[in-house]
Amino acid sequence: MTLLVVATYPVAGGTVLEGRVTIESDGAVAIGGTRVPSSQGTSAMLGAAAQVAAHLGTSAPYALVAGDIGRGDGTRAVYERLLDAVTRVRPSVVAFHYMQPVMALMRKAVDGLAEAAPGALLVADAGGMYAAKAAGLASRFELMTPDVGEVGFLADPSVTHPAYVSRYLFGNDGFDPVMLAASAHETGGSARVLLIKGARDHITLDGRVAEVVDEPCVPELEAIGGTGDTVAGLASAFLAAGFPTVDAARCACLANREAGRVMGATPAMHASDLVAALPGVLASELCGWSGVCVA
Amino acid sequence: MALFARRDRKAAPGADEALGLFLFDAVNDALAAERALKAAGYEVSLVAPPPHLRAGCDLSIALPRVEQVGAEREIVGAGVHIRDWVADVEGTAEVCDLVTTVDFGQWLMVRAGNMKIVVEKATGVIVNTSGGGCPDIPYLNLELVGKRLHEVPRPKDLGYTLCGLMLDRAYVEVRSQLETAAQGGDA
Known about the structure:
- The complex is a heterodimer of chains A (about 300) and B (about 190).
- Chain A has one domain: Ribokinase (UDP-N-acetylmuramoyl-L-alanine:D-glutamate ligase, 3-Layer(aba) Sandwich).
- Chain A contains 9 helices and 11 strands.
- Chain A has helices spanning about 40-55, 75-90, 105-115, 125-135, 150-155, 175-185, 225-240, 245-260, 270-290, and strands at about 5-10, 15-25, 30, 35, 60-65, 95, 120-125, 145, 195, 200-205, 210-215.
- In chain A, helix 7 crosses helix 8 (about 245-260).
- The radius of gyration of chain A is 17 Å and the shape is globular.
- The two termini of chain A are about 20 Å apart.
- In chain B, a hairpin with a 5-residue loop joins strand 8 (about 115-120) and strand 9 (about 125-130).
- Chain B has 2 domains: about 20-95, Alpha-Beta Plaits (2-Layer Sandwich), CATH 3.30.70; about 100-180, no CATH class.
- Chain B has helices at about 25-40, 70-75, 135-145, 155-160, 160-180, and strands at about 20-25, 45-50, 60-65, 85, 95, 100-105, 105-110, 115-120, 125-130.
- A 5-stranded antiparallel sheet of chain B has the order 4-1-3-2-5, covered by helices on one side. Chain B has a 4-stranded antiparallel sheet with strand order 6-7-8-9.
- At the A-B interface, helix 4 of A face strand 5, strand 7, strand 8, strand 9 and helix 3 of B.
């Protein structure tokens, strides 16, 4: 029951790091004992996932990452090592996160995973999601976690990056995440479950709304870089712990929102503040949300 | 007029001209080529290549076919590698131009597409960036957050991807709004 996160970290030329994820005493995220910069992105995702594992007493998430500041070098390095890592780690969930969206590499990875880890559930967020959708592989994924600016991308079969989505799909002018989720499902642009992050979080199963989470309402969370990444990390970790996918997504939305409320979120705070608030939130609320109670 | 003289076109490209595309291996190559061409007086536009020519995070430059030779020389002269030239723009797409603003009182957030930048109004300090999914976005977050708007390079000069390009649009807009407010207009 291990979560494997495949991603990058924001250091030019940074070496490949592989290992269990830990949170240091000062809140920094470490991979196999090596600290990675604290920012939005994969460090936020890993921090949230590690807090879930620590709370539930499950295996700490395992990460395969490399330095990449947008040139794609680190992305290529982790793809090259992916199947080797999968053979050793035997993950139950593989999550693709901040990566250069290269369709050919994603196709090769997904085909390889079908043989190396046929039972593993696939999760995608950020560039991993862009690559999976653009390559026509979205329906092979169990969970994707788009925000309101990305669900239109999943619903539009003609585009390969959210930057090219028609403006009416971007959160206003008749924006309808339910309709877009259905369209994404019909056109093969959606995972089985979508967690659409927004002022109201919509969770859809096979194109239909299964859950809506809108409390507590903390508008400041949208302004904080990485709070979508923490949702993805929470959901991936709950999934790896054995939660049904819709429950994993719902608990992720609730925990993220509650952490934002508890920390008194302002637009000047950071994802690391939210990660630090998670242990208390999980200890006090997860049992009631999920029925999964830790003594 | 010399055959390969520098051009000084002012009309928008493609209004009634046949267009072609320069394709690149990386978004930052396209951005560097755009800078070189605009510095040389060309009017060009950044667009997505047609679907059958896309590899993922792509950006190409559209300009009148008749200008291919001179423009190519400018790009190569700037040290930028061109993957290919395509004399057909059918199926291209424009980069999203939707920009929205959220006022948090002490802070102003501007979204460009799915990219966001948040600035403290009183100081101009960038307190957050978010959105996107390409690897330069966490890098830009580290490079920009905690610094004043006017002290940092533009995101499109630091970044490498379409996400970075969209963050640049948000940066330009928030800077414009705060400068307008400082001059006594509405932010």
